[in-house]
Amino acid sequence: MLLALSHFALLAQLAVNSTVPEPSAPSVVPFDTTISVARLAGVALSLEAGGRVRIVGGDTKAVRVQVTDKGKRCADCIVAVSQMGNAISVRTGRSRTPRELANLEIQVDVPTQTNILLTSAGGPVEIAGVDGFVSGTTESGSLQLDHLSGAVKLETKRGDVTLRQSYVRGTVHTNDGRVLMEDVSGDVQGTTSKGRVVERRVEKGGPAQ
């Protein structure tokens, strides 16, 4: 697993160095690209147009980003993917109606050992098969987390959180919804401001390294 200090350093670097692309830089939806990065450290996603997000770790050395509008054309939806050193930035937005969420479907395939930094304006998030530091927020929508290892710090402002079959340390939180942790071990805590926390076969232990 990746070292905790490198996790924090990478996420700080992504947050500071990630800049909004020029208007002419982004591509339109549908969008599909693959980028190979030697010694990939992490992927930062800033999804101002929202949408359903699925991030999957697997046996690959590249990052593939696919964005579709699920048959509901979004003429002003834009996507920008760029490389920053050994990290990748993924951004979505709308050129004419920036405050309006889009009905996008965002699929990101990454190597298993990858750090993730996610900010979404709204929409459900699924993350599976990632070994690294996974951090982020969505303004609304569920969090579905499966087969993770490493560290997590994830929050939804409104929606249920499910963490299954994972060995992690950190926190998962919702302001309004249920937290379900099932077949989980490690020093991890689930919290909710308005709802309940359900634990099934949860083994609290030392921190995952």
Question: Mind explaining what this structure looks like?
Answer:
This protein has one helix spanning 4-17; strands at 27-28, 31-36, 42-47, 52-58, 62-68, 77-84, 87-94, 105-111, 115-120, 125-128, 131-138, 143-146, 149-156, 161-174, 179-185, 188-192, 197-203. It has 209 residues and is mainly beta. The protein has one domain (4-14, 28-202). It starts with a helix and ends in a 6-residue tail after the last strand. Residues 1-8 and 15-24 have low confidence and may be disordered. It has a 17-stranded mixed beta sheet that branches. Helix content is 7%, strand content 55%. Strand 6 and strand 7 (87-94) form a beta hairpin. The chain contains one helix and 17 strands.
Please specify the SSE layout and strand pairing:
Blueprint: H1 4-17, E1 27-28, E2 31-36, E3 42-47, E4 52-58, E5 62-68, E6 77-84, E7 87-94, E8 105-111, E9 115-120, E10 125-128, E11 131-138, E12 143-146, E13 149-156, E14 161-174, E15 179-185, E16 188-192, E17 197-203
Parallel strand pairs: 3-7, 3-9, 4-8, 4-10, 9-11, 10-12, 11-13, 12-14, 13-14, 14-15, 14-16, 15-17
Antiparallel strand pairs: 1-6, 2-5, 5-8, 6-7
Keywords:
single chain, 209 residues, mainly beta, 17 strands, 7% helix, disordered N terminus
The secondary-structure element order is: HEEEEEEEEEEEEEEEEE
Q: Tell me what portion of residues adopts beta-strand conformation.
A: over 45%
**What is the overall silhouette?**
globular
Q: Span between N and C termini?
A: 6 Å
User: How many discrete structural domains?
Assistant: 1
Quaternary structure classification: single chain
Structural class: mainly beta
User: Helical residue percent?
Assistant: under 10%
The number of distinct helices, counting runs of at least 4 residues, comes to: 1
Radius of gyration: 17 Å
Report the strand count. 17
* Main sheet characteristics: 17 strands, mixed
